Amino acid sequence: MPVSLCGSWDMVSNVNFEGYMIALGISLYTRKIALKIKHRKVIEQVGDRYVVKTLSTFRNYTFSFRVSEEFQEFTKGLDDRNCKSLVAWEGNKLVCIQKGEKKNRGWAHWIEDDKLHLELHCEDQVCKQVFKRVV
Ligand code: YOG
């Protein structure tokens, strides 16, 4: 069983978020604001259902899923697209594939050195975020 991702996590680094947002077609105006904010990740598990909340002073994004069960995701308040998303464990990584208009879209979460890592990718862009546990 992989280590639990559950808990509250505060962003400590965010590399190439700009490239990732450009790949998603986010406007310059929104990118300027989005680049300045820190995200908090809140991950909860209720039975076989996960809830992942990305919180910030600008916008919040919440979604929930069952592992290995494809679902319809609408990225409300982000790029507002529909995806067919599938989240599954690959070793110690929780990996999401987001099938839709954007090629090669998805993310992976894992724990390393007591930090929560998130790699977001879209087209040829990779964004790397690291979060520390909220104490
Ligand atoms: O995480 O999908 O944990 O969904 C990525 C935003 C910025 C809004 C954040 C607000 C992509 C403006 C979610 C950020 C850029 C920019 C706080 C990352 C789109 C719009 C919500 C994400 C997964 C994995 C869970």
UniProtKB/TrEMBL annotation:
Q: Which UniProt keywords apply?
A: Transport
The Cytosolic fatty-acid binding proteins domain covers which part of the protein? Answer: 7-24
Q: Which SUPFAM superfamilies match?
A: Lipocalins
| InterPro entries in the cross-refs | Calycin, Fatty_acid-bd, ILBP, Lipocln_cytosolic_FA-bd_dom
- Name the Gene Ontology biological process terms: determination of heart left/right asymmetry
Molecular functions (GO terms): lipid binding
Q: Which family does it belong to?
A: Belongs to the calycin superfamily. Fatty-acid binding protein (FABP) family.
What this protein is called in its record is Retinol binding protein 7a, cellular
Name the species this protein comes from: Cyprinus carpio carpio
